[in-house]
Each structure stands twice: as structure tokens, then as C-alpha cells.
Amino acid sequence: MQKQVSALKAPSELFDPELPTSRELMAAICCVATQYALKPSHELAVLASELAHKLTAPEYADTKLIEDIAERLVKQWQVIVSEYGAEDNWLMATHNTLQ
Fold it and tell me: Is residue 14 part of a domain?
């Protein structure tokens, strides 16, 4: 059963009213991950990371499984996003003209 956001209680900052259930948010993450698999980009990695972070909102914590998946997705996408930063640092360090 999906948790309903109470009208009396303000939703958390992570909650996205355009994606009101964990099922819809997971579908969005899957769509972005599929696009990333087809054509990886920093922008898609950041978007997937942001969506995964939203999944940690208490409104989406339907089950312990969702909570565990959210934590894993956040960690995985953070690693991918940070790898793009590492590539940029490597590029700057190896190209004197860019410094």
C-alpha cells in the first residue's frame, strides 16, 4: 500500500509531487538508466543520482526493500557522477593549455 502524503503534514524536500509514488519514481529512474546505458553522459548520471536521492524521502519508504534499494541506487549513481569529476580532474592535470 502506498503511503499518502497528509494534507496536514508538509512533504519532505525530497518528495516530488509529480512522481507521487515509489513505483512512479522507480519507473523514472529506470527510464533515465536505460538512456544512460544507451548513451552515457554526465547530465544523465546527475539526473539519475537526483532521482535516486528523491527515493530516500520518507514518503516513498513503502517497505524496507524500497529503502534498501534507494540507498544502493544513491551510492551507485554517486560513484558514477564522481567518476565524471575524476575524468575532468585528470583532463585538467594532463593538459597544460587548459590550466
Answer: no
